[in-house]
Amino acid sequence: EMLEKGGFDHFMLKEIYEQPRSIKDCMRGRIYPEEGKVQLGGIKEFAEKLKNIDRIIIVACGTSWHAGLVGEYLIEEYARIPVEVEYASEFRYRNPIITEKDVVIAISQSGETADTMAAIEMAKERGATIFGICNVAGASIPRLSHAGVYTHAGPEIGVASTKAFTAQVTVLTLMAFYMAQQKGTITTSKLIELLTELDNIPEKIQQTLESNNIIKEVADKIKDSTNCLFLGRGSGFPVALEGALKLKEISYIHAEGYPAAEMKHGPIALIDEEMPVVFIATQNSSYEKVISNIQEVKARKGKVIAIVTQGDTEVKKMADYCIEIPDANEAFLPLLATIPLQLLSYHIAVMRGCNVDQPRNLAKSVTVE
Ligand code: AGP
Fold it and tell me: 65, 143, 209, 297: least CB-packed within 10 angstroms?
């Protein structure tokens, strides 16, 4: 087993460190930065249909559902197609309106999640086209789908999903660009710019991993907390949800992810000197807004941990701890900002003596309802 862990103490840590490679594998043969072109062989027979679809419904569970939320931002932003993101378990039981004009994207690491499979079956019966995004080749979900794109992240052993999540987000990014290309909602020069940057994301993830020691120090400061809030805006919101889920799953600390602006509608009541609040506070379109949310937390003596853009000075003046990530286009923020949150949960869980790879009560894939 030590050999399988490649010298790492846990599969989860190994899988976190594999991300520069797994994202590269996921993009291989699919992006052509110099030409400004995306090729997705798995869905190319639907290339024409994509020009005229009115709506996309994404169905998934857990971490895969968080990837779906990131997908919603990207597809709406670049391909200008309305997207709804549904928990598969809710969708299958609420008689949703689905027509043969709809495309349903089902996201699943394992490809065996019972609720996601049932949601696909229902959507198929009602005539929708199903695209699967899956990590395990030949699993049930790819077989149930009309077409799909594999994430190619390699086997994920840790129960808490890490590299599969960032690979799902990568595939959704590629799909958003592909659909935009088909629909003509993006120029070739913009695609050249975005793909050139995307091509460099594995390198930036590598740089982010180098903050491991700082993250470990932060973990030590908050490891004894009983609660933790994660806040972000825009595509930083699903990142916050994913950060909170990771912490819950492996450290058993109660954590909530919230859109930062929603804080004042309830969660703000929880803030006192015992409450760590993790902010996604990178320099993008919502930077100034997030800064005022940080001030609101500091005014109530909350402990602020901020994920910031390298070289940031403003947030540093307010936050108790800052973790830097390299600057990047907003489209790629979720890929980078997720990494420190994975490491933070990992170290906290290890410090609390938890079974990181196999947390209590959880199974790697939920094949029953
Ligand atoms: C992730 O850390 C979880 N263990 C869990 O939420 C998982 O993402 C969910 O069960 C969905 O699994 P799937 O991607 O294999 O369908």
Answer: 143
197, 198, 204, 209 alpha-carbon torsion, rounded to 10°: 170
Per-residue confidence at 65, pLDDT binned at 50, 70, 90? very high
64 Cβ closer than 6 Å to some ligand 1 atom: yes
Q: Is the CB of residue 279 less than 8 Å from the CB of residue 314?
A: no
Active site residues: 364
Evaluate: CB of 109 within 6 angstroms of ligand 1: yes
Starting at the earlier edge strand, list the strands of the sheet with 321-325.
254-259, 227-232, 276-280, 303-309, 321-325
> In this structure, which residue's CA is closest to atom 7 in ligand 1?
62
Q: Which of 59, 64, 367 to probe ligand 1 with, by most ligand atoms within 8 A of CB? A: 64
Tell me how far apart the alpha carbons of residues 308 and 324 are, in angstroms, rounded to a whole number.
Answer: 5
Query: Measured from the CB, is residue 293 less than 6 Å from ligand 1?
Result: no
The ipTM (two decimal places) reads 0.98
Q: How confident is the model at residue 1 (pLDDT cuts 50, 70, 90)?
A: confident
Average pLDDT, the chain: 96
From CA 37, how far away is CA 256, in angstroms rounded?
38
